[in-house]
Amino acid sequence: FFFFVGMEKVVACPYKRPNALCRLICFPWAGGGTSQLAQWGKLFSNSIEVSSVRLPGRESRLKEPFAKDMTTLVDEITSVLLKELQEKPFAFFGHSFGSYISFAVALHLKEKYGLEPIHLFVSGAHAPNSEAFLPIKSIPICETEDEDILTYIQILGGTPSELLQNEDIKKHLIHTFREDIRVLQTFSFDKAERNIPFSCDVTCFNGSEDNPHDLEAWHDLTSGDISFYNLPGSHFYLLEPSNEIFLTKHITRCIENSGL
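The structure corresponding to this sequence follows.
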């Protein structure tokens, strides 16, 4: 029973497919919840069950404190998902902040349980071992004014402007974004003393008008194939219906071709 409660709390899966061959677990962006990515379930065929991870401090977990660091977050997600991930093949999709969480969870699963996704799909983020990731760690997030965070959120896009008209929603979004960046700053991955951690294929998606991301460093993280796709749009290119169709078709093809 506790396992089930944990599952429902941490994972949103509106389109359950008990007979699916593979699970696609999605990880949201900073400040984000499960609403968009969990809805992808209806775009996929019956062979793939889609769920989205729900982080503390938002949606039905609003009353819970935010995660204090990346390790705590990874431990919670892993403990809830572990049983399911041991049952059948799985793939991860993460966008922006979610890309880094998905990588950290995948790394923990591999190092501690010998489990590996059949495919990692990352979007709108640097390779976690890239020098380009380092400036994120030095943003003085505690001292940054709410107004500056709000401006940044607006520049990134992805948040309907009518939501930002509501003071309470706006305050909560800024607070959530701030906390998520703080968690991201506690994440460090030092490639130097390790072997290549993964053998799965990795696909990197980016918006063509987004700031370019350093993806080359992914080559040091997996012995599998790496492919790169630029889709039309800015940081939240993935919310465009035409891009959503491309992503879901492409992800389906990759999963089905992985020889399940």
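The two ends are 30 Å apart (CA to CA).
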